[in-house]
Design brief:
Keywords (chain B): Leucine-rich repeat, Repeat
Number of helices of chain B: 4
Number of helices of chain A: 7
Number of strands of chain B: 9
Shape of chain A: elongated
CATH superfamily of one domain in chain A: Cysteine Rich Protein
Strand content of chain B: 5-15%
Oligomer: heterodimer
Pfam families (chain B): LRR_14, LRR_8
Largest sheet of chain A: 3 strands, antiparallel
CATH class of chain B: Alpha Beta
Organism (chain B): Hypsibius exemplaris
CATH class of one domain in chain A: Mainly Beta
Structural class of chain A: alpha+beta
Protein name (chain B): Ras suppressor protein 1
Number of strands of chain A: 26
Strand content of chain A: 15-25%
Order of helices and strands of chain B: HEEEEEEEEEHHH
Number of domains of chain B: 1
Distance between the termini of chain A: 90 Å
InterPro entries (chain B): Leu-rich_rpt, Leu-rich_rpt_typical-subtyp, LRR_dom_sf, LRR_domain-containing, LRR_R13L4/SHOC2-like
Chain lengths: 377, 272
């Protein structure tokens, strides 16, 4: 990395011309009644001491000199004064030339921490001017490494996190008086004290099932594990339950919506969650009031005989009104399926109350009901 | 019969009911039940098992309708205004005589269940925006005349049920593999010989899933796996070996099996 650090002192500064007395007269000569201007030991006609750009006299007699020419303040700034890259104003006085542009000394700052760099030097990093500490940190982060919060050097091995800052583990020893050994990155923090893993394990602090770190505040105990409140989340949407109701299934926890969505307590017709009694039939779940003949929409219960078409329930009366050729085709497909899956179970209806779901114990108290197919002719 | 119809309508009106059942009332036209079209408060209208041929444009006046059942009628014509029903979630048009769908049919904003079973529809007779109904959860197209399932079916990402039983399908698009929510696929009774390998990505085999594919002229590798079980079939579809089998089959472009069943006697073809 190139050290690119120039200070450039701008030489122009305002000069003030004074009316002369009668002494130094030069070149063309002066009439005795002409007003004479005297500037830095040189005398001018009043009309000759003017801005080299606009040919007007200098307001208040203030002018700027550059390469032998004199300019009024306005033209000098327009022509020569540098612009600060930060505040976009003209710079008069000390100018910092760096990063291929100009800056007011107080505006040349580290892009990350904002420290003024004019007198402490800087490092160029990916087109940014950074102070040395920031540059070191960025470099370490890019290499996937941390900077030790204590000695500010790069941590080559695994860091030890303490109060959310990374450290070289060897800066610490185990807080257990009887142990006191130098720590490694496996050390654990308990109530702002660091312990080696061995001593920590002896203290019996619950470990969060999600992040594997000790739980010191509120502990949630569920699924046979301990959790940080904010780490006990729905397995589907990953939002924390924060004390609200959750549903357990196969070692995972779900929020109400996703439990029902995944495990079928969604009414097929309305798409709504089934809160109360749930009818399970034809690979779908139904609110009892929506479990009707697909065709005539007559309500059905567990005593109603129905037939299946495309995994929809059709009452016997409607099915008999279907075209004969359709019924024959359905029967043929059914028989073909039976040949392939001779053990395919008959469709059954099961009633399960929502209360049972809340305890996430799907009781298999089903009422097997027939779902018969028309006999082949 | 007409008196019974009017009594049913009047009862519904007096009781302020939000649903109206006029099943099997030998109604042949909405002209016989004009007052229904002014019952704008109803959410469910059931006209199954009648003899209605034409659905009038004024059906769109029933702005609160969530469920419309026209199962087993003689319907040959639907109005373009039908898809303007902003709240319609369930539409049953099974067992009718539809040869085509009206322009813009796919504009239903919240339609979730669409039953077009047993009509005379094919990929050429659908509206251009048919597969833009992204809210669809279940689509029943069994007993129609599809030879090709358009690739746009992949847009229907909420689809859980897709029934294509007893059509004339000769191939399926690989875009079927995009239907991540699908848990029921019925393709029995078609002219299919191969399945795109992408079908192997679908979650349609298991205790809570349905995958029916009987009565198709499958190539022997598929047929053999099918005899053991659909899970074996899915393993086959996911195998590298099958990818090349499928590619070769598509490339060879062999003879397409003839249509299996004679459809001329379908009641949807009747003109009376």
């Amino acid at each position: 990395m190139v050290l690119d650090h120039h200070h450039h002192q701008w030489t122009a500064s305002p000069l003030v011309g004074n009316y002369a007395d009668d002494s130094t007269l030069e070149r063309e000569g002066f009439d005795s009644h002409d007003p004479i201007l005297n500037s830095q030991g040189e005398a001018y006609h009043e009309d000759c001491l003017v801005c080299a750009q606009c040919f007007r006299q200098f307001p208040d007699g203030v002018y700027y000199e550059f390469e032998g020419r004199k300019y009024c303040e306005y033209d000098f700034q327009v022509l020569y004064a540098p612009c600060c890259n930060k505040c976009k104003e003209f710079i008069v006085g000390r100018v910092i030339k760096a990063m291929n542009t100009s800056w007011h000394p107080e505006h040349f700052q580290c892009e990350l921490c904002g420290r003024v760099l004019s007198d402490i030097g800087f490092m160029r990093n990916q087109g940014r001017a950074l102070c040395h500490p920031c540059n070191d940190r960025v470099k370490a982060e890019a290499a996937g490494k941390y900077i030790c919060y204590r000695c500010k050097a790069i941590i080559d091995d695994k860091p030890l996190k303490y109060k959310n800052e990374p450290y070289h583990p060897y800066h610490f020893t185990c807080s257990n008086q009887d142990c006191g050994r130098e720590l490694d990155s496996d050390a654990r923090e308990i109530r702002e004290e660091l312990y080696c893993l061995r001593c920590h394990d002896k203290m019996g602090i619950p470990i969060c099932g999600a992040c594997r770190r000790p739980v010191e505040d509120r502990v949630v105990t569920a699924l046979g594990k301990h959790w940080h409140v904010e780490h006990f989340v729905c397995a589907k949407c990953e939002k924390p339950f924060l004390g609200t109701k959750h549903y357990e299934k196969k070692g995972l926890a779900y929020c109400e919506l996703h439990y029902h969505q995944l495990f079928g307590n969604i009414d097929f017709v309305s798409g709504e969650i089934i809160e109360d009694i749930c009818v399970t039939a034809l690979n779908k779940t139904w609110k009892p009031e929506n479990f009707v003949c697909w065709s005539c929409e007559t309500p059905m219960d567990e005593r109603t005989k129905f037939l299946e078409m495309d995994m929809l329930p059709v009452c016997k009366r409607c099915y008999e009104r279907f075209p004969g050729e359709l019924r024959r085709r359905l029967t043929r497909h059914y028989e073909a399926a039976q040949r392939i899956r001779p053990l395919a179970p008959e469709s059954t209806i099961a009633h399960v109350s929502s209360e049972e779901y809340e305890r996430s114990m799907v009781v298999s108290a089903c009422f097997p009901r027939m779902c018969f197919r028309e006999e082949s002719r | 019969m007409a008196a019974k119809v009017h009594k049913a309508i009047q009862d519904a009106q007096h009781q302020g009911r939000r649903d109206l059942d006029l099943v099997e009332k030998t109604i042949t036209s909405f002209n016989e039940i004009p007052q229904v079209l002014s019952m704008t408060h109803i959410t469910r209208l059931n006209l199954a098992h009648n003899k209605i041929r034409v659905v009038p444009p004024a059906i769109a006046e029933l702005v609160n309708l969530e469920s419309l059942n026209l199962y087993n009628n003689y319907i040959v014509e639907l109005p373009t205004s039908l898809s303007g029903l902003q709240r319609l979630r369930v539409l049953k048009l099974g067992l009718n005589r539809l040869d085509e769908l009206p322009r813009g049919f796919g504009a239903f904003p919240v339609l979730e269940i669409l039953d077009l079973t047993y009509n005379n529809l094919s990929e050429r007779k659908l509206s251009g925006n048919f597969f833009m109904m992204e809210t669809l959860r279940a689509l029943y197209l069994g007993d129609n005349d599809f030879e090709i399932l358009p690739a746009e079916v992949g847009n229907l990402h909420n689809l859980q049920v897709l029934v294509l039983r007893d059509n004339d399908l000769t191939s399926l698009p690989k875009e079927l593999g995009q239907l991540k929510s699908l848990r029921e696929l019925h393709i029995e009774g078609n002219r299919l010989q191969v399945l795109p390998p992408e079908v192997g990505l679908l979650d349609i085999v298991g205790p809570r899933q349905i995958f029916r594919l009987e009565d198709n002229p499958w190539i022997s590798p598929i047929y053999e796996q099918l005899q053991i079980g659909t899970n074996h079939l899915m393993d086959l579809l996911r195998s590298a070996n099958y990818q090349s089998v499928y590619a070769r089959h598509v490339q060879a472009g062999g003879a397409i099996p003839p249509a299996i069943h004679d459809k001329s006697r379908k009641s949807s073809r009747r003109k009376d």
